[in-house]
Specification:
Shape: elongated
Radius of gyration: 22 Å
Structural class: alpha/beta
Helix content: 25-40%
Strand content: 15-25%
Distance between the termini: 42 Å
Low-confidence stretches: none
Length: 429
Amino acid sequence: MKKNALVAQSGGPSPVINASLQGVIDACLSHNNHIENIYAAWHGIEGVLTEELIDINSQSRQEIELLRYTPAAGAIGTCRYKLKENQTEDFERIIEVIKAHNIGYFFYIGGNDSMDTAAKVSMLAAEKGVELVVAGVPKTIDNDIGDEEFTIIDHTPGYGSAARYWAYLVQNVNEENRGMNVSECVSVLQAMGRKSGFITAASRLGDPNREIPLQLYMAESHHSLESLADNVSCQLRRTGRCIVVVNEGFDVGNLGEAYDGFGHIEYGASEISAAQVVVNYLNKVGLPARGQVTGQLPGVIQRSVSIHASKVDIDEAYQVGKKAVHIAINEGTGWMATILRAPGNSYKAVFDKVPLEVVANSVRYMPSNWITKDGLDVTDDFIRYAMPLIGDGWPDIKIENGIQRFARFDIKFIDKKLPDYLPVMFRYL
């Protein structure tokens, strides 16, 4: 007997999250001997809880194909709703929705928190005797899922595009700094990454020959405002200008932090940014060069701009989505599709699977041997690792009437079969 499939997204988006969504959809359509209908939860697990499910089968093929070049998560929505152990009502509700709509396959696109949720849903369904296959699809621009040996996942879909964004940004900022350094001697940029420095590190990909006076302050380097100021002063004495990239989690003291639904610091909503503190501090202590220190805060732009997306990243995000469906059909429940790297000097991705429990809540940091001894740069080993991920050429962005054309689904929910439900965390608002 054929079952229905449900796909949902969770957490912060990426430039290629919809490529993974398209991969899941296309693979489900190709397995029509197992899968009857495909549903998408509107705004992630929240849509599952509220029974707001979109009929994907009724969407036009044109809109589905546009997913590959549509950034962020606007097509079906995402959320930061944290399912905690004690939220038994929420977990029971998920199972009720799955049973009510004859869902036999659940695909969850997200990061480590999402893989933890997927693992819990898989185990709960098994405990209750519900025939449900749960598969995870990895996603995060931070590249902080897995282990530092890179045996769980080599890199996450979304990271290559964020890395490409930063490589190009540094190149362009350098041109500005070259021209304006007599009045704006230091340019400070802030990259995403709470506790891991993979995105900050990617800035070096814009200058692999180390010709730009660039300093990288990754979270793992453990520098302070004082050491940063000393390093910048030394650079100014040598070159008269400097470009500084700091992790959003760079320790500058109290930022008036705001927190998201997962309990993580949401730096974009906090009272002040690390970059602004660095700018203020450097201007206050004074520098051995003419001009001011200025700052830029790209924010969520680095994860939601399609024009900088890596073609390698797009293709891999699509393929790992398809792989998740293949695993679900042939291997059963409790797996996440993963991307590994084939041995050898030339880059080649290999798609495989890992248990959801292994990925759940895993955290990966920049390996210490990829950071230079002074903590201001990355080694050549990191460049060799990351450079293939940004790819060559530009993505095939669709243009209509001079502006970008993104996927737009017809957001009409299928008929509900259960009483209305208020998710547990909404009851405290």
